[in-house]
Design a protein that fits this description.
This protein is α+β, with helices and mostly antiparallel strands. It has one domain. Helix content is 35%, strand content 13%. It contains three helices and three strands. A three-stranded antiparallel sheet has the order 1-2-3, with no helix packed on it. A hairpin with an 8-residue loop joins strand 1 and strand 2. The longest helix is centred in the last third of the chain and has 19 residues. It starts with a strand and ends with a helix.
């Protein structure tokens, strides 16, 4: 999440589908803020079309890559470091969502 926009992965874990969503305020100040936000699909280098909307751990290409890497001892598409960074980002997002907002604190 940034001040100008948020990079959002809306395909679930493992999905390469990304969107850039403009920041236009918050729901406390304006309940219609979502309708004002610009949304842009992001294509990764080499992609000609949008990737699938959902790819989970059970996705055959994900499992195939994992087994091929076990056999060849090559690095998988997603490294342990990638998984660690993804987990840290999810934990940070959960903490932010659980934290009281300044607007809620002002009401108390």
């Amino acid at each position: 999440m940034g001040k100008k926009a948020t990079l959002f992965n809306h395909g679930g874990e493992g999905s390469p589908r990304w969107q850039l969503v403009e920041e236009k305020g918050n729901h406390e100040d304006d309940p219609t803020v979502d309708s004002q936000r610009g949304v842009k699909d992001i294509l990764l280098p080499g992609d000609q079309k949008l990737p699938p909307g959902y790819m989970g751990d059970e996705e055959p290409s994900h499992m195939t890559n994992w087994f091929e890497c076990l056999r060849s001892r090559k690095q998988p598409n997603a490294t342990v470091q990638n998984g660690f960074q993804h987990s840290v980002a999810c934990m940070m997002a959960r903490l932010v969502m659980a934290a009281p907002s300044p607007a809620a604190a002002a009401v108390r």
